[in-house]
Target: Phenylacetic acid catabolic family protein
Amino acid sequence: MSDWPEPAVDYVQAITDTKLVLGHRYAQWALSGPSLEDDIGGASAAQEEIGHVRQLASKLEAQGRDLEWTKGQRDSDEFANAACLDRIDGDWTEYVASIAPADRAAWYLLDAIDEDDLEGLITKMGEDEYFHLEYHDARLETLAEEDPETVQATLERTLPQALALIGPAAYDESEDPLYEAGFTDRPVSEIRAAFADHYRELFADTDVSLEGVDWDAPAVDDWDETRRRTGTDAISTEDVEQLRGERNAEFALS
Model:
C-alpha cells in the first residue's frame, strides 16, 4: 500500500462523501419514481453506492482517516459531497437533474486516478457506474421532452456545483497538484472539458439550453479545496442523523 500525495486523501474523501450522500438520496427517492422500474433502479443504485463507500472508506483508513468519521460520524459542514446533493427540493425532474451531474462528476474524478492499489477497485466500480450514468442520461433525455424548463433551470444550478466538485478550470497540466504528483492521469481542466462536452452533446437536439450555465465556475479564490465547493452550505442535520443511523440505534435500545 503506497502513501498518497497529501491532497489525494481529500480528493478521494470528496468522491466518497458524494457517493455516501448520493446513496442516501437514491434511497430517499426509491419509492417516488414515476414507474416501478425507476424505483427498483434507484434502490439498486443506492446499494451499489454504499458498497462503493465501504470500499473507498477502507482505502482512506489505510491513509490515516478514521473509518467511522469517513462513514458519517461528523458534523454536516465536514462533508465534502457535491453541493448539488445538499438538498433536493421539488419533484422527480429536479431530483434527476441534481443526482445525474453529481454521479458523473464523481465517476470522472475516480476514473482519473492512476494508483496501482486502486486500479481493480475502480474497474469494478466502473461496471456499476456505466449503468447508473446510462440510466441518468436516458431519463434526462425523456425529461427534456416532457419538462424542458425545469430541466434547464435545475441544470443551471447543479452543473456548476458538480464542476466545483471536479475543481477549478485553472488546474491544468502545470497547476493541478495531483496530476503533477502522478496521482491522476489527467488534470482537472481536462476532466471538466469532458464533463461539459457530455452534457452539451446530450442536450444539443432538445429544447433545453445550457447557454445559461456558468461553465467557468468555480473561481479559484472562492474554492475550498478540502470540501471541493464554494460557500459554506452543507447537508442538513437531519441528513447527518440518518447517515449515522442514530434513529435506528435509538429504536434498537428502546
